[in-house]
Specification:
This protein has two domains: 197 residues, NAD(P)-binding Rossmann-like Domain (Rossmann fold, 3-Layer(aba) Sandwich), CATH 3.40.50.720; 236 residues, Rossmann fold, CATH 3.40.50.720. The chain is built from 18 helices and 14 strands. The strands form three sheets. It has a six-stranded parallel beta sheet, with helices on both faces.
Length: 434
Protein backbone atom coordinates (compact mmCIF):
# COMPACT_ATOMS: atom_id res chain seq x y z
CA UNK A 1 0.00 0.00 0.00
CA UNK A 2 1.06 3.60 -0.55
CA UNK A 3 0.68 5.68 2.60
CA UNK A 4 1.06 9.41 3.23
CA UNK A 5 1.66 10.34 6.89
CA UNK A 6 0.86 13.99 7.59
CA UNK A 7 2.90 15.11 10.59
CA UNK A 8 6.24 13.82 11.86
CA UNK A 9 5.73 14.35 15.55
CA UNK A 10 5.86 11.46 17.97
CA UNK A 11 2.81 9.61 16.64
CA UNK A 12 3.35 10.37 12.96
CA UNK A 13 7.01 9.45 12.84
CA UNK A 14 6.71 6.24 14.85
CA UNK A 15 3.64 5.15 12.88
CA UNK A 16 5.19 6.00 9.51
CA UNK A 17 8.40 4.14 10.27
CA UNK A 18 6.52 1.09 11.56
CA UNK A 19 4.15 1.00 8.57
CA UNK A 20 7.17 1.04 6.27
CA UNK A 21 8.60 -1.87 8.24
CA UNK A 22 5.35 -3.73 7.46
CA UNK A 23 6.37 -3.43 3.81
CA UNK A 24 4.26 -0.42 2.79
CA UNK A 25 5.60 2.58 0.86
CA UNK A 26 5.40 5.53 3.25
CA UNK A 27 6.02 9.24 2.74
CA UNK A 28 6.06 11.34 5.90
CA UNK A 29 5.13 15.00 5.46
CA UNK A 30 5.99 17.97 7.65
CA UNK A 31 5.69 21.73 7.16
CA UNK A 32 8.88 22.43 9.11
CA UNK A 33 11.75 22.50 6.57
CA UNK A 34 14.33 22.05 9.34
CA UNK A 35 12.67 18.88 10.57
CA UNK A 36 12.38 17.50 7.03
CA UNK A 37 16.06 18.27 6.39
CA UNK A 38 17.00 16.55 9.65
CA UNK A 39 15.01 13.44 8.75
CA UNK A 40 16.45 13.33 5.23
CA UNK A 41 19.88 13.46 6.86
CA UNK A 42 19.02 10.40 8.93
CA UNK A 43 18.55 12.26 12.21
CA UNK A 44 15.61 11.52 14.50
CA UNK A 45 14.14 14.66 16.12
CA UNK A 46 12.68 12.76 19.09
CA UNK A 47 14.15 10.22 21.48
CA UNK A 48 12.52 6.81 21.22
CA UNK A 49 14.60 3.66 21.78
CA UNK A 50 15.23 1.79 18.52
CA UNK A 51 13.54 4.32 16.24
CA UNK A 52 16.77 5.54 14.61
CA UNK A 53 17.80 2.01 13.59
CA UNK A 54 14.34 1.10 12.27
CA UNK A 55 14.11 4.36 10.33
CA UNK A 56 17.52 3.92 8.72
CA UNK A 57 16.70 0.35 7.70
CA UNK A 58 13.51 1.30 5.90
CA UNK A 59 14.99 4.38 4.25
CA UNK A 60 17.77 2.16 2.90
CA UNK A 61 15.17 -0.32 1.64
CA UNK A 62 13.44 2.48 -0.29
CA UNK A 63 10.15 2.13 1.58
CA UNK A 64 10.35 5.32 3.64
CA UNK A 65 10.81 8.94 2.62
CA UNK A 66 10.29 12.47 3.94
CA UNK A 67 9.05 15.63 2.26
CA UNK A 68 7.49 19.02 2.82
CA UNK A 69 5.30 18.62 -0.27
CA UNK A 70 1.92 17.36 0.90
CA UNK A 71 0.41 17.35 -2.58
CA UNK A 72 3.10 15.08 -3.98
CA UNK A 73 2.83 12.70 -1.02
CA UNK A 74 -0.97 12.43 -1.27
CA UNK A 75 -0.97 11.88 -5.04
CA UNK A 76 -1.88 8.24 -5.62
CA UNK A 77 -1.92 7.30 -1.92
CA UNK A 78 -4.20 4.49 -0.78
CA UNK A 79 -4.40 6.00 2.69
CA UNK A 80 -3.57 9.42 4.09
CA UNK A 81 -3.03 9.55 7.84
CA UNK A 82 -3.51 12.77 9.80
CA UNK A 83 -1.07 12.71 12.71
CA UNK A 84 -0.75 16.37 13.65
CA UNK A 85 -0.88 17.87 17.13
CA UNK A 86 -4.11 18.46 19.06
CA UNK A 87 -2.84 20.49 22.04
CA UNK A 88 -5.12 21.75 24.77
CA UNK A 89 -6.73 24.99 23.67
CA UNK A 90 -6.09 27.94 25.93
CA UNK A 91 -9.03 29.11 27.97
CA UNK A 92 -11.51 26.25 27.65
CA UNK A 93 -9.52 22.99 27.96
CA UNK A 94 -10.76 21.65 24.64
CA UNK A 95 -8.50 20.03 22.05
CA UNK A 96 -7.23 22.51 19.45
CA UNK A 97 -8.30 21.04 16.11
CA UNK A 98 -6.94 23.80 13.88
CA UNK A 99 -4.01 21.67 12.68
CA UNK A 100 -6.30 18.72 11.93
CA UNK A 101 -8.73 20.80 9.90
CA UNK A 102 -5.96 22.60 8.02
CA UNK A 103 -4.49 19.22 7.08
CA UNK A 104 -7.91 17.92 6.02
CA UNK A 105 -8.46 20.87 3.70
CA UNK A 106 -5.05 20.46 2.10
CA UNK A 107 -5.58 16.73 1.69
CA UNK A 108 -8.91 17.31 -0.05
CA UNK A 109 -7.30 19.66 -2.53
CA UNK A 110 -4.49 17.16 -3.18
CA UNK A 111 -6.50 13.95 -3.68
CA UNK A 112 -6.22 12.52 -7.20
CA UNK A 113 -8.09 9.24 -6.74
CA UNK A 114 -9.82 7.19 -4.09
CA UNK A 115 -8.12 7.26 -0.69
CA UNK A 116 -8.99 6.62 2.92
CA UNK A 117 -8.28 9.66 5.08
CA UNK A 118 -7.39 8.31 8.50
CA UNK A 119 -7.33 10.40 11.66
CA UNK A 120 -4.59 9.12 13.96
CA UNK A 121 -4.46 12.28 16.06
CA UNK A 122 -6.44 12.14 19.29
CA UNK A 123 -9.63 14.08 18.57
CA UNK A 124 -12.96 14.70 20.33
CA UNK A 125 -16.03 12.69 19.39
CA UNK A 126 -17.52 14.00 16.16
CA UNK A 127 -14.25 15.29 14.71
CA UNK A 128 -13.99 12.70 11.95
CA UNK A 129 -17.40 13.69 10.66
CA UNK A 130 -16.16 17.29 10.54
CA UNK A 131 -13.01 16.14 8.74
CA UNK A 132 -15.21 14.50 6.09
CA UNK A 133 -17.21 17.71 5.61
CA UNK A 134 -14.03 19.78 5.43
CA UNK A 135 -12.57 17.58 2.70
CA UNK A 136 -15.85 17.55 0.77
CA UNK A 137 -16.08 21.34 0.94
CA UNK A 138 -12.48 21.71 -0.24
CA UNK A 139 -12.95 19.21 -3.08
CA UNK A 140 -16.61 18.42 -3.88
CA UNK A 141 -15.63 15.77 -6.44
CA UNK A 142 -13.07 13.99 -4.24
CA UNK A 143 -13.45 10.21 -3.92
CA UNK A 144 -12.63 9.32 -0.31
CA UNK A 145 -13.74 7.76 2.94
CA UNK A 146 -12.81 8.79 6.46
CA UNK A 147 -11.61 6.41 9.18
CA UNK A 148 -10.60 6.83 12.81
CA UNK A 149 -7.51 4.91 13.92
CA UNK A 150 -6.45 6.14 17.38
CA UNK A 151 -2.94 5.37 18.60
CA UNK A 152 -2.09 3.64 21.87
CA UNK A 153 1.68 4.13 21.97
CA UNK A 154 3.62 4.43 25.21
CA UNK A 155 6.59 6.73 24.95
CA UNK A 156 9.71 4.68 25.53
CA UNK A 157 8.04 1.50 24.25
CA UNK A 158 6.29 2.79 21.14
CA UNK A 159 7.80 0.44 18.57
CA UNK A 160 6.89 -2.64 20.55
CA UNK A 161 3.41 -1.23 21.16
CA UNK A 162 2.95 -0.71 17.41
CA UNK A 163 4.33 -4.09 16.38
CA UNK A 164 2.67 -6.07 19.20
CA UNK A 165 -0.44 -4.09 20.12
CA UNK A 166 -3.06 -5.05 22.67
CA UNK A 167 -5.54 -4.07 19.95
CA UNK A 168 -5.94 -1.98 16.82
CA UNK A 169 -9.06 0.18 16.71
CA UNK A 170 -10.50 1.19 13.33
CA UNK A 171 -13.62 3.31 13.12
CA UNK A 172 -15.41 3.39 9.76
CA UNK A 173 -18.81 2.58 8.26
CA UNK A 174 -17.39 2.04 4.77
CA UNK A 175 -16.63 -1.49 3.61
CA UNK A 176 -14.25 -0.02 1.04
CA UNK A 177 -12.31 1.81 3.74
CA UNK A 178 -12.38 -1.26 5.96
CA UNK A 179 -10.75 -3.30 3.19
CA UNK A 180 -7.95 -0.75 2.83
CA UNK A 181 -7.34 -0.59 6.58
CA UNK A 182 -7.40 -4.38 6.76
CA UNK A 183 -4.68 -4.56 4.13
CA UNK A 184 -2.58 -1.93 5.92
CA UNK A 185 -2.77 -3.89 9.18
CA UNK A 186 -2.60 -7.31 7.52
CA UNK A 187 0.79 -8.19 9.12
CA UNK A 188 -0.80 -7.83 12.57
CA UNK A 189 -3.97 -9.70 11.59
CA UNK A 190 -1.87 -12.63 10.37
CA UNK A 191 -0.24 -12.82 13.79
CA UNK A 192 -3.64 -12.80 15.54
CA UNK A 193 -3.44 -9.38 17.12
CA UNK A 194 -7.03 -8.18 17.65
CA UNK A 195 -8.41 -5.57 15.25
CA UNK A 196 -11.61 -3.96 16.48
CA UNK A 197 -13.86 -2.35 13.87
CA UNK A 198 -16.38 0.22 15.12
CA UNK A 199 -18.17 3.32 13.92
CA UNK A 200 -16.32 6.64 13.94
CA UNK A 201 -17.73 7.99 17.20
CA UNK A 202 -17.01 4.80 19.14
CA UNK A 203 -13.38 4.72 17.98
CA UNK A 204 -12.94 8.34 19.02
CA UNK A 205 -14.43 7.64 22.44
CA UNK A 206 -12.33 4.49 23.03
CA UNK A 207 -9.13 6.56 22.94
CA UNK A 208 -10.32 9.13 25.47
CA UNK A 209 -11.95 6.58 27.74
CA UNK A 210 -8.82 4.40 27.82
CA UNK A 211 -6.46 7.26 28.67
CA UNK A 212 -8.82 8.72 31.26
CA UNK A 213 -9.12 5.34 32.95
CA UNK A 214 -5.35 4.89 33.14
CA UNK A 215 -4.95 8.42 34.50
CA UNK A 216 -7.61 7.55 37.08
CA UNK A 217 -5.67 4.46 38.20
CA UNK A 218 -2.54 6.55 38.71
CA UNK A 219 -4.40 9.22 40.63
CA UNK A 220 -6.28 6.67 42.73
CA UNK A 221 -3.09 5.01 43.94
CA UNK A 222 -1.59 8.42 44.70
CA UNK A 223 -4.61 9.19 46.89
CA UNK A 224 -4.19 5.81 48.58
CA UNK A 225 -0.50 6.61 49.08
CA UNK A 226 -1.37 9.77 50.96
CA UNK A 227 -3.65 7.81 53.27
CA UNK A 228 -0.98 5.13 53.72
CA UNK A 229 1.38 7.76 55.06
CA UNK A 230 -1.22 8.80 57.63
CA UNK A 231 -2.11 5.30 58.87
CA UNK A 232 1.29 3.60 58.60
CA UNK A 233 0.63 1.32 55.64
CA UNK A 234 3.02 0.63 52.71
CA UNK A 235 1.56 1.66 49.36
CA UNK A 236 3.94 -0.63 47.43
CA UNK A 237 2.47 -3.66 49.19
CA UNK A 238 -1.03 -2.26 48.84
CA UNK A 239 -0.45 -1.89 45.09
CA UNK A 240 0.85 -5.42 44.86
CA UNK A 241 -2.11 -6.77 46.80
CA UNK A 242 -4.51 -4.92 44.53
CA UNK A 243 -2.71 -5.78 41.30
CA UNK A 244 -2.78 -9.51 41.92
CA UNK A 245 -6.54 -9.30 41.47
CA UNK A 246 -7.08 -10.11 37.79
CA UNK A 247 -9.97 -7.67 37.63
CA UNK A 248 -7.66 -4.80 38.58
CA UNK A 249 -4.20 -5.68 37.21
CA UNK A 250 -0.85 -4.36 38.39
CA UNK A 251 -0.16 -1.70 35.76
CA UNK A 252 -0.47 2.02 36.50
CA UNK A 253 -0.61 1.39 40.24
CA UNK A 254 2.76 2.90 41.13
CA UNK A 255 2.57 5.85 43.50
CA UNK A 256 4.61 8.89 42.55
CA UNK A 257 4.53 12.61 41.78
CA UNK A 258 1.53 12.48 39.42
CA UNK A 259 1.03 11.81 35.73
CA UNK A 260 2.28 14.00 32.90
CA UNK A 261 3.27 13.62 29.26
CA UNK A 262 1.65 14.30 25.92
CA UNK A 263 -1.56 12.29 26.40
CA UNK A 264 -3.07 12.00 29.87
CA UNK A 265 -3.19 15.71 30.80
CA UNK A 266 -4.71 16.92 27.54
CA UNK A 267 -6.97 13.92 27.01
CA UNK A 268 -8.51 14.07 30.48
CA UNK A 269 -9.13 17.78 30.04
CA UNK A 270 -10.66 17.24 26.61
CA UNK A 271 -12.92 14.43 27.85
CA UNK A 272 -14.08 16.57 30.77
CA UNK A 273 -14.86 19.36 28.33
CA UNK A 274 -16.78 17.03 25.98
CA UNK A 275 -18.88 15.88 28.93
CA UNK A 276 -19.68 19.45 29.93
CA UNK A 277 -20.70 20.36 26.39
CA UNK A 278 -23.07 17.41 26.18
CA UNK A 279 -24.57 17.89 29.66
CA UNK A 280 -23.03 14.61 30.80
CA UNK A 281 -20.30 15.80 33.19
CA UNK A 282 -17.40 13.42 33.70
CA UNK A 283 -17.20 13.98 37.44
CA UNK A 284 -14.58 11.31 38.12
CA UNK A 285 -12.33 12.65 35.36
CA UNK A 286 -12.73 16.22 36.59
CA UNK A 287 -11.67 15.10 40.06
CA UNK A 288 -8.69 13.19 38.64
CA UNK A 289 -7.44 16.37 36.97
CA UNK A 290 -7.77 18.35 40.21
CA UNK A 291 -6.16 15.70 42.41
CA UNK A 292 -3.24 15.18 40.02
CA UNK A 293 -2.27 18.84 40.34
CA UNK A 294 -2.52 18.58 44.11
CA UNK A 295 -0.24 15.52 44.08
CA UNK A 296 2.50 17.48 42.31
CA UNK A 297 2.30 20.28 44.87
CA UNK A 298 2.45 17.77 47.73
CA UNK A 299 5.79 16.56 46.40
CA UNK A 300 7.19 20.05 46.93
CA UNK A 301 6.07 19.88 50.57
CA UNK A 302 7.99 16.62 51.00
CA UNK A 303 11.22 18.31 49.94
CA UNK A 304 10.53 21.32 52.16
CA UNK A 305 9.84 19.08 55.16
CA UNK A 306 13.17 17.29 54.66
CA UNK A 307 14.89 20.68 54.76
CA UNK A 308 13.20 21.93 57.91
CA UNK A 309 10.41 23.78 56.15
CA UNK A 310 12.47 25.88 53.71
CA UNK A 311 14.89 25.39 50.83
CA UNK A 312 16.01 29.02 50.81
CA UNK A 313 19.78 29.08 50.29
CA UNK A 314 19.98 25.30 49.98
CA UNK A 315 21.28 23.23 47.07
CA UNK A 316 18.82 20.68 45.69
CA UNK A 317 19.91 17.93 43.28
CA UNK A 318 17.08 16.72 41.02
CA UNK A 319 17.52 13.36 39.29
CA UNK A 320 15.28 13.20 36.23
CA UNK A 321 13.00 15.84 34.74
CA UNK A 322 11.18 14.03 31.88
CA UNK A 323 7.68 12.84 32.72
CA UNK A 324 8.84 9.20 32.53
CA UNK A 325 12.05 7.32 31.66
CA UNK A 326 13.14 6.42 28.12
CA UNK A 327 11.78 9.60 26.55
CA UNK A 328 12.85 13.21 26.12
CA UNK A 329 9.25 14.41 26.51
CA UNK A 330 8.68 17.03 29.19
CA UNK A 331 5.11 17.99 28.36
CA UNK A 332 3.22 18.45 31.64
CA UNK A 333 5.99 16.63 33.50
CA UNK A 334 5.78 16.87 37.32
CA UNK A 335 9.20 18.55 37.15
CA UNK A 336 7.56 21.59 35.55
CA UNK A 337 5.60 22.13 38.78
CA UNK A 338 8.13 20.91 41.34
CA UNK A 339 11.39 22.45 40.12
CA UNK A 340 10.07 26.02 39.65
CA UNK A 341 8.56 25.83 43.14
CA UNK A 342 11.98 24.92 44.56
CA UNK A 343 13.70 27.68 42.59
CA UNK A 344 11.00 30.10 43.71
CA UNK A 345 11.65 29.05 47.29
CA UNK A 346 15.26 30.19 47.02
CA UNK A 347 16.93 26.86 46.24
CA UNK A 348 19.86 26.40 43.94
CA UNK A 349 18.68 23.51 41.78
CA UNK A 350 21.02 21.18 39.95
CA UNK A 351 19.45 18.75 37.52
CA UNK A 352 20.55 15.71 35.56
CA UNK A 353 18.54 13.74 33.00
CA UNK A 354 19.79 11.37 30.27
CA UNK A 355 17.51 12.93 27.63
CA UNK A 356 15.75 15.89 29.24
CA UNK A 357 18.40 18.61 29.14
CA UNK A 358 17.59 19.87 25.63
CA UNK A 359 13.99 20.69 26.51
CA UNK A 360 14.71 21.36 30.16
CA UNK A 361 17.11 24.20 29.50
CA UNK A 362 14.26 26.19 27.97
CA UNK A 363 11.48 25.08 30.29
CA UNK A 364 13.32 25.27 33.61
CA UNK A 365 15.20 28.60 33.79
CA UNK A 366 17.59 29.07 36.68
CA UNK A 367 18.58 25.40 36.84
CA UNK A 368 22.22 24.29 36.69
CA UNK A 369 22.63 21.16 34.56
CA UNK A 370 25.07 18.39 35.46
CA UNK A 371 26.31 15.39 33.50
CA UNK A 372 25.66 12.71 36.11
CA UNK A 373 24.05 12.12 39.48
CA UNK A 374 27.30 12.25 41.45
CA UNK A 375 28.20 15.67 40.08
CA UNK A 376 24.69 16.88 40.88
CA UNK A 377 24.72 15.78 44.54
CA UNK A 378 28.21 16.98 45.45
CA UNK A 379 27.76 19.50 48.26
CA UNK A 380 23.96 19.35 47.96
CA UNK A 381 21.58 19.58 50.90
CA UNK A 382 18.99 17.17 49.50
CA UNK A 383 18.63 14.88 46.48
CA UNK A 384 15.25 14.39 44.80
CA UNK A 385 14.56 11.35 42.59
CA UNK A 386 11.90 12.59 40.21
CA UNK A 387 12.16 10.24 37.20
CA UNK A 388 13.05 6.56 37.58
CA UNK A 389 15.66 6.22 34.83
CA UNK A 390 17.56 2.95 35.10
CA UNK A 391 20.80 4.76 35.86
CA UNK A 392 19.18 6.17 39.01
CA UNK A 393 18.12 2.71 40.22
CA UNK A 394 21.61 1.45 41.06
CA UNK A 395 23.40 4.48 42.50
CA UNK A 396 26.32 4.19 44.91
CA UNK A 397 24.38 5.56 47.86
CA UNK A 398 27.36 5.60 50.21
CA UNK A 399 29.36 7.68 47.74
CA UNK A 400 26.46 10.09 47.40
CA UNK A 401 25.96 10.46 51.13
CA UNK A 402 29.66 11.18 51.70
CA UNK A 403 29.73 13.92 49.07
CA UNK A 404 26.60 15.78 50.18
CA UNK A 405 26.55 18.71 52.59
CA UNK A 406 23.49 17.11 54.19
CA UNK A 407 22.60 13.52 53.25
CA UNK A 408 18.86 13.77 52.69
CA UNK A 409 16.78 12.05 49.99
CA UNK A 410 13.27 12.65 48.67
CA UNK A 411 12.58 9.45 46.73
CA UNK A 412 9.44 10.42 44.82
CA UNK A 413 9.43 7.21 42.75
CA UNK A 414 9.98 4.74 45.62
CA UNK A 415 13.14 3.44 43.95
CA UNK A 416 14.95 2.64 47.21
CA UNK A 417 14.03 1.41 50.67
CA UNK A 418 14.48 3.56 53.75
CA UNK A 419 16.56 0.80 55.32
CA UNK A 420 19.11 0.77 52.49
CA UNK A 421 19.27 4.55 52.24
CA UNK A 422 19.82 5.00 55.98
CA UNK A 423 22.42 2.20 56.02
CA UNK A 424 24.34 4.06 53.30
CA UNK A 425 24.68 7.11 55.53
CA UNK A 426 21.67 9.25 54.71
CA UNK A 427 20.25 10.99 57.76
CA UNK A 428 16.78 11.69 56.34
CA UNK A 429 14.63 9.90 53.78
CA UNK A 430 11.15 10.51 52.42
CA UNK A 431 9.17 8.49 49.87
CA UNK A 432 5.58 8.28 48.63
CA UNK A 433 2.99 6.29 50.54
CA UNK A 434 5.40 4.51 52.87
Amino acid sequence: MKIAMIGTGYVGLVSGVCFSDFGHDVICVDKDPRKVAMLLDGQVPIYEPGLDTLMARNVAAGRLGFTGDLKAAVDGADAVFIAVGTPTRRGDGHADLSYVMAAAEEIGQALTGYAVVVTKSTVPVGTNATVARTIANAAPDADFDVASNPEFLREGAAIDDFMRPDRVVVGTTSERARAVMGEIYRPLFLRDFPILYTDLETAEMIKYAANAFLATKITFINEVARLCEKVGADVKQVSRGMGLDGRIGNKFLHAGPGYGGSCFPKDTQALARIGQEHAAPMQIVETVIKVNEEVKRRMVDKVLDLCGGSVNGKTVAVLGVTFKPNTDDMRDAPALTIVPALVGGGAQVRAVDPQGKREGEHLLPGVCWKDDAYAAVEGADVVVILTEWNEFRALDLERMARSMAAARMADLRNVYSEKDVKAAGFTAYSSVGR
